[in-house]
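Annex B. Sample input.
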Amino acid sequence: MKLLEASNPLETFGYVATAISDINLAYLHLTEEMADFGREHTTVPTSYIRDRFCGTLIVNGGYNQERANAVLTSQQADLV
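Annex B, continued. Sample output.
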């Protein structure tokens, strides 16, 4: 399985989130990595994307009820 990799994930995904924020998408769906694939990587925090995307933001990946409630209460995402 080939996973999506970027040399600078914060810059890449931040740019994309900002660019698509203005095109009136129904929503942006983020799937957070739940497994350690034995490689070094940079995680892009949901809050980083939220600051750049003003539309409906859906997240999933490793959420339990407590973590889901926290991300919703903090308004880092609209749906889990």
